[in-house]
Design brief:
elongated; mainly alpha; two-stranded antiparallel ribbon
Length: 549
């Protein structure tokens, strides 16, 4: 606000400004006054303003870039911040507008006056709040200024701190300048412009960067775990293992990660590595129940009866009410060929957890071993009803239909299982068997070739190819495949027996006799079948297929 050129105090103009950074458009009206206040009132008002600035800085309200720039320009124009005595001797006139809502100031009425408007650019406001500074009276220190409540009369405070609403001592013009210097030092430290403030801002920035780095590491870890688990759910076990190996050592050596690694090896039919991973899981988390079902099945596949019995005793003692405990006990009895008892414990596990899909499936396997196919089919269907992606149940149904010589249904169920777990070499072998029985020989060979690509060490795939080659009257190819199977399973009697039949067809009776004798030594129970083949060794060869593995 400025006076008229003649300096007439009765003639005034009003200037309205909008506070930068405030969305509500706070208005500070600057109006001229008709009377000159005492210097003591100006000094006290400046001290109130300093306190307000410090409170705002203590509440960590950062000034907007526009207000900070304006404050800097004002300090440069005045040659630096004025001292307390200079502010008390300032000749500026001020008063509160009639509305009681906005602080109004005016320049001196004479050109010789050096007073300047109060610099309020360094004080930020909260969006939606009015700015509150001071409202002094027109008289001296003792008479004109009663308390701070009068100074803040008619305004809306922007701060929630109760320090602005407490009574303050009366200000006098003879206060020492040290108070003002201390106030400026504290304000500089709070704003970060001093040495201590700069160090504090540096510490805050370093802490923020460290926090962001930690959050980034956590997010990276979670992304790696999630990607690996996603691959595992899609039965892409090799891809999952590669991601698990990239985890930090402190994360790899946890129960959950070792459980997933063991499960990945189990799905790949690598039971030795699965056993090692699940044993590590038990060491790092001895109380862990999850994963013991896979461990017990791994021990069943490895035919480790003593370890499986010990595991069953431990888990039952630890938690008799967990479904995994009775699942382990069922596997223990299944390995002992006590199928009825195993079914009882699998049923107990299902009773504790009706949605335990794997227990339904193994219960079906036990019924299949007893050739109770109707109950087995019911168990497999229950498992599929609980989890339609449980490929083991689809495989179980296909195996039953294959044994019942319902090869169309067997092929359908094997294919459904393979659609869920396309990385299983064993499923490729069974599908190839069903296709061969349905007369789809070429498709069967392609399917078995896929089994080789997934697991070149799979002996069953070689055995099934030998069966197909004998059907196609290709005994040389059949003998080559059987030799690979013999290398993988040298104590399998059926392999030596079928190699003897191939040698007989090739006109090699001596080699055929040697293979028959080896098969007889390995499996004396089938001595009648083997002896009959030995008796017909000198007879003309008749076309016969290799027995099913």
């Amino acid at each position: 606000g400025t006076t008229t050129p003649g300096g007439d105090p009765a003639t005034t103009t009003t200037t309205t400004t909008t506070t930068p950074g405030n969305g509500t458009g706070d208005v500070i009206g600057i109006m001229a006054s008709s009377s000159t206040p005492p210097a003591s009132a100006i000094g006290y008002a400046n001290e109130v303003l300093d306190r307000a600035r410090r409170v705002v800085a203590g509440l960590a309200y950062e000034p907007s870039p526009e207000t900070s720039a304006a404050s800097a320009r004002g300090r440069r124009r005045r040659g630096g911040p004025p001292s307390a005595r200079q502010r008390r001797n300032d000749g500026a006139r001020f008063r509160v507008s009639s509305s009681g809502r906005n602080v109004t100031t005016a320049l001196p009425s004479t050109p010789s006056s050096r007073g300047a408007p109060f610099d309020v650019a360094g004080v930020s406001t909260v969006k939606g709040e009015k700015r509150t500074l001071f409202s002094p009276g027109d008289d001296g220190c003792d008479d004109g200024i009663e308390d701070e409540g009068d100074l803040l009369r008619g305004t809306r405070t922007m701060m929630t701190s109760s320090s602005l609403h407490r009574k303050t001592p009366k200000a006098c013009p003879d206060d020492d300048d040290d108070d003002a210097d201390d106030s400026r030092a504290r304000m500089a430290a709070a704003d970060g412009s001093g040495v201590g403030g700069t160090e504090r801002l540096d510490d805050i920035g370093a802490a923020a960067e460290e926090g962001e780095e930690r959050v980034g590491r956590v997010l990276e870890l979670l992304c790696g775990l999630g990607a690996a688990y996603r691959y595992l759910c899609r039965y892409r076990s090799q891809d999952a293992l590669e991601l698990f190996r990239e985890l930090p050592p402190e994360q790899i050596n946890t129960g959950w990660v070792q459980h997933q690694i063991g499960k990945a090896y189990f799905e790949m039919s690598d039971y030795q590595n699965a056993h090692r991973a699940l044993q590590t899981m038990q060491k790092v988390e001895p109380h862990r129940i999850k994963g013991l079902d896979i461990l017990s099945t791994t021990l069943w596949q490895l035919k480790k009866e003593v370890e499986l019995s010990d595991l069953a005793q431990q888990v039952v003692d630890f938690d008799r009410m967990s479904p995994e405990a009775w699942f382990v006990v069922g596997n223990c009895f299944s390995l002992q060929k006590e199928h009825e008892t195993a079914v009882t414990f699998f049923r107990r596990s299902i009773q504790l957890n009706p949605s335990y899909t794997y227990a339904h499936t193994l219960c079906g396997h036990e019924y299949t071993s007893n050739e109770d196919f109707d109950k087995a089919i019911s168990c497999y269907r229950d498992a599929i009803r609980v989890d339609g992606r449980h490929y083991n149940a689809w495989y179980g149904l296909g195996a039953i239909y294959f044994r019942q010589e319902k090869f169309d249904l067997a092929e359908y169920h094997f294919r459904r299982a393979l659609d869920i777990n396309s990385q299983s070499s064993v499923l490729h072998c069974h599908l190839g068997m069903a296709q061969h029985q349905n007369g789809k020989t070429e498709e069967a060979l392609d399917t078995l070739a896929g089994a080789f690509r997934l697991d070149p060490r799979n002996p069953q795939a070689h055995y099934q190819r030998a069966t197909i080659f004998m059907t196609l009257d290709r005994p040389e190819d059949a003998l080559s495949e059987l030799e690979k199977v013999r290398s993988a399973a040298p104590k399998e009697a059926s392999v030596h027996f079928n190699m003897g039949k191939v040698h007989k067809r090739l006109g090699q009776p001596a080699k055929a006799m040697r293979c028959f004798l080896t098969a007889l030594d390995l499996d004396p129970k089938d001595n009648n079948l083997i002896k009959a083949a030995m008796d017909r060794l000198d007879e003309p060869d008749v076309e016969e297929e290799v027995s099913v593995f």
